[in-house]
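Schema walk-through. Below, the input block comes first and the output block second. Nothing else is stored per chain. Lengths vary across the set, and this one has 97 residues.
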Amino acid sequence: MKAYELLYFVDSTTDEEARAGVMKRIDVAITAEGGKVDNVDDWGKRKLAFEVDHVSEGDYTLIDFHADPTQIKELDRVLRINDAVLRHMITRRPDKD
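--- output ---
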């Protein structure tokens, strides 16, 4: 298993139930094939450098996790089809292996 981190944000006006649903879907995508979530860090509301879909403020979350490299494609697909997630970025962390 390799170490990764996922940073994503949703619209800051999104309700708590929708945010919990996004987090649950991400957790299922990571742990379905034996991956493990190491840390979830809620960064809170931050002003965006530029508007995304007419949104100027986002609620950021950073997730550190270990997963098989084949799972990353599925996680990326899940994040792309989720309307609540405006942007996301998955990066490999060789320093955490």
